[in-house]
Amino acid sequence: MRIATWNVNSIRTRYGRVVDWLVRNDVDVLAMQEIKCKPEQFPVEAFEQAGYQLEIHGLNQWNGVAFASKHEMTEVSRGFDAMPGFGKPIKGQEAVQGEGPNGLPLEARALGVTVGDLRLWSLYVPNGRGLEDPHFSYKLAWLEALRTNTEAWLAEDPELPLALMGDWNIAPFDADMGDPSFTPGVSTHVSAEERAMFASFAPSVSDVVRPIVPEGYTFWDYKAGRFPKNEGMRIDFIMGSEAFADAVTGASIDRDERKGDAPSDHVPVVCDVDPSLFGGTFEDEYDRPMVF
DNA sequence: ATGCCATCAGAATGATGA
Question: Could you tell me which residue ranges the Endonuclease/exonuclease/phosphatase domain spans (predicted)?
Answer without folding.
Answer: 4-266
